[in-house]
Write a structure and sequence with these properties.
This protein has two helices and three strands, in the order H-H-E-E-E. With 64 residues, it is α+β, with helices and mostly antiparallel strands. It has a domain of 40 residues: Antimicrobial Peptide, Beta-defensin 2, Chain A, CATH 3.10.360.10. A hairpin with a 4-residue loop joins strand 2 and strand 3. This is GLL10 protein. One of its GO terms (biological process) is defense response to Gram-negative bacterium.
C-alpha cells in the first residue's frame, strides 16, 4: 500500500504544470509582460495606469 502513495506523489510531481504554462499565448499579453508590466482583471492599483490590454482585450495591462 505504501508504494501507491509513493507512486501517486511521483506522478503528481511529474504532471504539475509550470507556472504560467496554463495561460494561452496572446500577443498583447506577451508584449505587456515583456515591458515589465502585469495584467489585471479589474482596475489597476492606485499607483499604476492602464497602458493597454491583455488576453485578447479581456484584461488591462497595468504599468507604473
Amino acid at each position: 500500500m505504501r508504494i501507491l502513495y509513493l507512486l501517486f506523489a511521483v506522478l503528481f510531481l511529474l504532471f504539475q504544470a509550470a507556472p504560467g504554462s496554463a495561460d494561452p499565448i496572446f500577443p498583447d499579453t506577451v508584449e505587456c509582460r515583456s515591458q515589465g508590466n502585469f495584467c489585471r482583471a479589474g482596475p489597476c492599483p492606485p499607483t499604476f495606469a492602464a497602458s493597454g490590454s491583455c488576453h485578447g482585450g479581456l484584461l488591462k495591462c497595468c504599468s507604473k
